[in-house]
Input
Amino acid sequence: MIQLVLEQALNGLQFGLMLFLLAAGLTLVFGIMDCINLAHGSLYMVGAYFVAAAAQAADSFWIGLGAGVAGAAVLGLLLELSLFRQLYKRDHLSQVLATFALILIANEAVRWIWGPAALMLNPPEALSGPVEIGGFFYPAYRLVIIAFGLAVAGLLYLLVAKSRVGMWVRAGASNREMTEALGINVQGLFTAVFVFGAALCALAGGLLGPLLAVQVGMGESVLILAFVVIIIGGIGSIRGALVGSLIVGTVDTLGRALLPTLLRALLPADAAATLGPALASILIYLLMAGILFFKPQGLFPARA
Amino acid sequence: MAFYRPATYQKPVVLALLLALLALPPALTAFGQEFYIGFATRVLIFALAASSLNLVLGFGGMFSLGHAAFFGAGAYAAAICMSSGIADALLAFPLAMAAAGLLALVVGAISLRTRGVYFIMITLAFAQMAYYLFVSARSWGGDDGLPLASRMMLGGFSLTSDSALFYATLGCLALVMVFFGRLADARFGRVIQAIRENETRMEALGYPVFRYRLICFALGGALAGLAGALLANLTGLASPNLLQWTQSGTLLVMVIIGGVGYLYGGVVGAVILLMLEESLVGVTEHWHIALGLLLLGVVLFAPKGVAALFGKRHD
Output
């Protein structure tokens, strides 16, 4: 039982860190530019396809990952310059409509190019086996994902909290007009942040590719989770995104693994069988509604 | 932004369209195109659903991304009525509206405490909860949804034929639109639009802002429930897919294309979107791309929606 909890906690950490890669870009785009980007999940999907395709072509996971991330960054750059730049000034309704349209286009384009079947993405040979930690076996590849996630989180923290560019980003999130008035090139900053967010999406998509299926529609479910994360954490806050991701990742994973068992011990089998999965899937939404009820601005509001 | 005021030519246009719609089923039958009666019914149902969202979004100024929950709840309520022996729409439809309205009342009472994007996201969260609850409710069919044994009766008339259901739907839509038009012009409609324009001022004038908003939200939910009940009759199934967030997105897109805050915005948007889908499907397999590009075009070049041509909002 303890082993199960430990293993699931590690899975939760891994999932949470991947969510963080998605949420970090989303929270900055949302927080600084006040832009609702429903197509963020599509960047994740397209990024995963880029990585899978490049990995197949180069016959190497790591080359594929690098090429895919670079490709997604270029796509992000093109999108920002052609479309999003016009959307920042518009109201939320227009942003929702435009990015909803992007979802339609992205899903269909991917289906067109790569076909409706899911794409296979194999983890690197050396990492396909399990390793033993503290008395139980855990897939090496998942450990690598955790390491990657921690490294990126640390890097982002240094970038946002310690560097000059990070200071501009934080200033932009807390008061855009004032930042502009101080002579910061906010336009260029927006573009850089958007491209960076797109690259992080592809990184998450590529890393998760071997664990989940690379398929059309993979972006939609994860998009909602990323939104839950940034709402819990507070829009525009990187620290909030990290804390929110870890909370959502752990609660969701542990809930799905343990709640049915727990309920079976408390309730009659019939009721537990219905209630368990239902409760497990709505747990994070309950959590979010609860947090919003008590802290309507999220845990770490970026705007004072 | 200001109060909605219909254009002078709106009434004759709407009456003419209503007469044309009355003649639609016999005309389609005469040309051997009965299939399109079902399609026309679908368009009317989505027009009703989009209009109910337009009440919340356009008139109430509440950006809800969870409207599909009430739509789906109405469908499930109808299917549950059917399976427990209530086969008369005169009873089942009000029950579906009550169920969806009650759900909206609860969701609204919690969500309306938040503002701005947080409201968007919390309504989305509640819709996701409803979706997962229905997906995992095995006694209501779980993933597969809850089928209806047959279509309902409306008083003494059976809705089994496609034409009968079409006329019933048209009747519902017409009633709702008349009600909607009166409401927009009544005190309630003025207050709710004034709250959309300047919440603080209305609060200072002593209006119970929260209560007005909540009633508007619940009313929108109840009307969406009616649309859901009709759709369950049309397709013979209450499916959890109706509650998916992309469905909320589709309804939003309809309202935005049609014209947010214009009386017929929802109707116009539903007609345009579904007709576009139907005609694009015939042209290319990849019609989603064409539809997406068209939507982008609307955002960039016609930001006020198509119904802006049919009514004014006084400044």
Remarks:
- Chain A touches chain B at residues 30, 36, 38, 83, 86-87, 90, 92-94, 96-98, 100-105, 107-109, 111-112, 220, 224, 227-228, 231, 235, 273-274, 277-278, 281-282, 285-286, 288-289, 292-293, 296-298 (CB under 8 Å).
